[in-house]
Amino acid sequence: MDEVKITEDTSTQSLESAGSVVQVDAAKMSSDKKKKKPELADKTLACRYELKYRLTESKAHAVAEFVKHYIPVDRYCKLQRGGDYPIVSLYLDSVNSQLCKESIDGRQNRFKLRIRSYTDEPDYPVFFEIKRRINTVIMKSRARLMHEDIIPVLAGLPLGPRDYNVDMKALNQFQLYVASVQAKPSVLIRYMRQAFEGDSDNRVRVTFDRDLCYCVTDKPEVRLGGGGWQRNPVTENSGVILEIKFTGSYPIWLSRMVKYFDLKSRSISKFATSITDSCSLRFCAPQLAR
To answer: Does residue 153 fall inside a structural domain?
Structure first.
């Protein structure tokens, strides 16, 4: 794979703009909570290439053993007893499921809107994210806020001053995208992630996602617990989603790994597969019916 230079348009006046990235942490969130919180998981690569694979559990274990000789286990995984951590995202979509349809159709230039969290603890932040694909490049922006901010942000309301850093550019962009398609809550998606990440200039991140579940909802809340969850068939029967993310040239050792384990990349959308499965179970509206 040839090295490709990635550029980013940061104009906030266009839906083709690319927001900046906020460092993922959970430092002091309010003046009445002085106790410092531990950092949260899933360090974001703002501009990257992304390859996905579906593996069996046995092959995923072998690939992970290979990867750890080149890049270390993510520091957040090291803090967890089981070596992985939970992720939950509330995905937004239009009434006619425009964003999901574009993902299913494989449209080259498309975006997803989601609100991500790693815990149900109310004192920890949530992240308002835009994930955009422009041809083969993935661009991601996020703004860190709190759970109580979800409803006003989705309503397009301005936020008052905060005593912690908020990427207002990314937040304004998120609200612009929401308004452009009149996006509303569509589905909650959760899974467990095992991650490896290097710290070289060409940042490489390799993740293994397991136990993918979804919950169709129209409520503006992000939760890991509660009822209504269904298993996504993509990771049933010990299936694992492998994702390779890199920012510059494709490392030689990754090429060797893909060849040695005979890995075949494929399009895997946690969002689209969850919505499609929910429709097959008659949990969703009929807009996706073909």
So the answer is: yes
